[in-house]
Amino acid sequence: MTGFTGELPPARFNLTRYCLAQSAREQADKTALTIADGTGYETLSFAEIEDIVLRLASAFRLLGFDRGARILIRMGNSFDYAAVFFAANAAELVPIPASSMLSVDEISFILSDSQAAAIVHDGLLDLPDLPVGCRLITPADIAAFKSGPRGQYADTAATTPAYMVYTSGTSGRPKGVLHAQRAAWGRRPMYQGWYGINSEDTILHTGAFNWTYTLGTALFDPWANGASSIVYTGPRDRAIWLKLIADLNPTIMASVPALYRQMLSDGGLSPHAIGSLRHGLTAGEAMFPGLQKEWLETTGIALYEALGMSEISTYISSSPSVPTKPGSPGKPQPGRSVCILPVSGDDEPLQAGETGLIGVHRSDPGMMLRYWNRPDDDQTVYRGDWFVGGDLGHFDDDGYIWYEGRNDDVMTSFGYRISPLEIEVAIMRNPAIQQAGVTEVELNPGMKLVTAFVVMREHETLTAAEVIDFASNSLARYKVPKQVFFVDALPQSGNGKIIRKNLSSLLKQSKDHANDD
After folding, report:
1. Over residues 409-423, mean pLDDT
2. pTM to 2 decimals?
3. Strands 70-74 and 303-309
4. What is the radius of gyration, based on Cα positions, of the chain?
């Protein structure tokens, strides 16, 4: 099989310039972003956003950071989060977008591991003690930077580091995925291979600015196409999405399967209620059985699913030009080279119908540069010219991929990849706990909960709520188990490793549990 067959990026390429410069020049006054906070709407034009970004970029340069210095963003759901991200990139720094749900311990690890030169803080979220040499940039600093001189886009190469995201792995230690400037260009196969986007579109994204799914789908891609976007920053309100659709007339909605299912269960959906939408996009986790059919029957519009990973973003999808096939996320996007490799053995791709590891050709411009300071992982994720992230699947005779889960223990919750080992380590910091095993348990079809099975030390007792509360002190909320079961022993292999796939069989002997919170 050949490698990437789409158009390659120019040698000199900057992510932020690609997303903003042309629209700011050719349609300066057009609304690029509408921010809904639950009380009203604020709009920003392409020219206004570019001006803010380049003033911030100039200030970052004047602070004297080395080129390529890492800048961690510790902020809540506000436009300033996005502005800092793009400005740092425009200044040839490497922003690290971090979820606001990360704990202080998790932020401390990322600061240390990335050797961040600075952390941009909103003054609200908790901070750890900062490492020596790590600068704190405050809200007052950001406000002052916005009124400073306007800078220019950095003249970067397509392969210059652009940003870094931290993701869980099988080792339980989060690792930095370093992306190049070309990553924005590498999203071009999504434009028609998933979105069906044009410059007249407005995308409503239900995520927060501090989620990479939102940064890519609500900002990178619509702005690069001269389209507009809507992001909600107000209190979580189940009814807000239909109100935003009615008030702002988006043409494409992007979310996760759980939210679409929630909208169906709440009632009120109809072709009239979602009148402006042409279709919806869904990613982050596999679609629940029957969701696509029920959504189409209720609203009259399709949901187009995409399969992706932190190392490349989405690369398989359905779209207006790739009809949905229930149960499959779709086909490889135009230009991408995807194969199925044997789980073990040689690098010869398998035939249709044969299950193996999904591989993406390393020539894809969306592929990461490398893992941050993890050379061993860089070696193990490639099989010849194929990046293999651990997803299992097979092709059918029509060229659709059928996703069959993970070949390792990594779980998915609310669109985030989660390592069970990371959760187990956090739980076992409690001195009353002897052992813990974590897996996903399917309560109902399509509803899986992160679940912990705990063995207590002799003469020690805890409630499920106490275990959950303890874990929440060091884990982001989406990583905290939703259920805890107390058992006498965990299934183990001959060398003492937990057999996580057998944990669910312990449910019958459990002594106590906590329901979904």
Report:
1. 75
2. 0.84
3. unpaired
4. 23
